[in-house]
Sequence to fold (353 residues):
Amino acid sequence: MFSKSLIDLYDLDSDDLESLINLALKIKESPKEYMDRCHGKIMATLFYEPSTRTQMSFKTAMLRLGGQVIGFDDPKNSSVAKGESLRDTVKIFANYADIIVMRNPIEGAAFAASQYIDVPIINAGDGGHMHPTQTLTDVVTLKSELGRLHNLKIGLCGDMLNSRTVHSLIKTMSRYEDNCFYLISAKELELPEYVLDFMREHKVEFKTFDNIEDCIPDLDVLYMTRIQRERFDKEEDYQRQKGIFILTVDKMKKAKEDMIIMHPLPKVDEIDVEVDDDKRAKYFEQARYGLFARMALIIKMLESDNKSTAQYDLSDSLCKNPKCITQTETYLKPYVSTVGENKYCAYCDTKIN
Ligand code: CP
Fold:
């Protein structure tokens, strides 16, 4: 049962996720069969933050399905620049489009927008929080390249704190049996509390490392990430963190012959350019899988008439995360989700109590 909007890939049940992955791989084999599937449909892309892959692959996906695309790639060219609220902007686009794709630098923005419109909305990245369509891309890549989504030793290296792709990937891959995460990061850039709580709650196996060399021989997948400069409050903090973890040809000599290297991209300096020539480097193919993954997602969401069934409680306390959408769009109701004894902001997942 597809839900109305896609805010977090974890919201999909296992059958829906499986059917999405299978559809993406079918489209990859015979894309022409799907060229009219969205004829007459319009997708709006609202990009409040820069993007190459996500934006262009969504647009290409809709065009390859026979649909059309409207939207903006810089909020300065829209009435957001005049002070229009997120709520009003999405309500207007919902009058024009059948489906909305939104990237926003503020955590929880897609969930906030989904409360005010009836057309489906896809979270194309909300600050450092979640990036479900990158994760869909990643699982399609893993399934195609390795043939399985279980029993994998997955190294995650770099900025665990701010890499939304990593947060989404951990939650999704935790559904499958016998996966183990090798978390390689500096202490200051460890996973946020809500992801660690999730891992403990779901008994997800993980180990921590402060260098690549110690764990690379064990890995089936090494998922590199960029240090997310735009998420740091101070430039000197970024300067201290950059360049600590660099994957080199020398380090790759210790990796298994069938290990694959993934990266959501863009990359900066965390992978030496010589590594691009290693047949185990799959990040450019990964971006291509993203096109088929997004074609599959658009089809499924437009062909589903299901409504969202998620329920949240109202809280007395407001979220204290300064990067949460509730801090800037102050009309939002303070919804929370409850897990055991703990309450988490429904927008950004920060622990409330
Ligand atoms: N992986 C990813 O989200 O890339 P873009 O920021 O270029 O969309």
Remarks:
- The first strand starts at residue 42 and ends at 47.
